[in-house]
TrEMBL record:
It comes from Hymenobacter setariae. This is Gluconate transporter. Keywords: Cell membrane, Membrane, Transmembrane, Transmembrane helix, Transport. GO terms for cellular component: plasma membrane. Belongs to the GntP permease family. It is a multi-pass membrane protein.
Amino acid sequence: MTLLVILLAVLALILLISWGKVNAFLAFLLVTIPAGFALGLGSKQVLGAVQKGLGDTLGSVALVVVLGAMLGKLVAESGAAQQIAAALLGDRGAKGIQWTLMLTGFIIGIPLFYNVGFLLIMPLIFSVVYQYKLPAVYVGLPMLAALSVLHGFLPPHPSPTAMVVQFHADMGLTFLYGLLVAVPAIVLAGPVYTRTLRGIVSVPRPGLVAEPLPAEVLPGRPNSFLSSLLPVLVLAVVLGLQAVLPAGGPLGPTLAFLSDPSVVMLLSVVVATFSLGMGQGRSVPNVMQTYAAAVSDVAPILLIIGGAGALKEVLVASGASQHLAAGLQGTGLPPLLLGWLIAGFIRVCLGSSTVAGLTAAGVVLPTLAQSHANPNLMVLAIGAGSLLFSHFNDGGFWLFKEYFGLSVKDTLRSWSMMETIVSVVGLLGVLALDWVLPA
């Protein structure tokens, strides 16, 4: 019954949004409330879950998305993104652009949380698209594949880090094995798969694309790189200090505060206001107009992400995630495959990769010792499963769709398939490592 309700809810979402042309946020509410009742929640529980889902989801991403949009818009309008793109491409022009951006996304994605990285690289992607007249999805998806894989597979990202602790895995070995699994997944889902997507027409939101500026008015390259990539630098320094300093030391609370994505983005926006705004001859009111426009650009996206969070919370509050996981536990499948399958099933049904990963970990944990599975590989198997087939109930799906200005069909064909490829290739990589590593 639980699975039937979830499938009907997803089907209703698809029909309302793609066929009925209903606003996505409204469609989420129209589907979430009946689904809550059908799953056995009372009226107060349904409303409480909707409010909690909206609040928790927006509370965790709203500051990052808004501040990231502000920084991204200023980076684009100031010409900093244009400078970075020119430096990355050099004299090669568009030759090898996918590989260059994929590597950039990989480097950025190691220390940065997904939403921060996504918003940080958007101006860079669109600057390249505008300058070289290339298809946006063809250029941008390899970079986003790198971000997504690192978010799902590798510490210090939230879900993998939590699973390392739960499974008593080795952080260093998990990171090393994760790199071995991540590289083929990114390559196949990025440059290889996107060769089939060159025909997709992307119409980005007008506020997200900046006209190329004359070379004489561009900020300097050091300023452009430092101001745009400051979140990466701050987090890299903070994480490095946390790794070498003793736990519980006097700097611990300060470093924990500085490692919060919202704090990192706020610091970066403040610095960019001076370095890319006032330092380039713009007045404070002019820079604030840029920030106001950035907020208006992302407000509809935030509502959609909040709606997806409301649906997720209703499913969690009703016990649907545990019910689905328990139904798969007695299958007799190999433990690594089972962990991937449980995480993937919950991901497809609930949308949240973090919820899928942590729920699957909680289900698999009691049987890990008896199964003799490698705990480092179990972290990666569940992480890969948590990325499987992002669709209507995932905020990342809507973030990608709205930023790239795609139809639902093209978003499924590009974003959803990319996530599925990295998930399946990730599983195959984990199974290959399990075969070659000593028991």
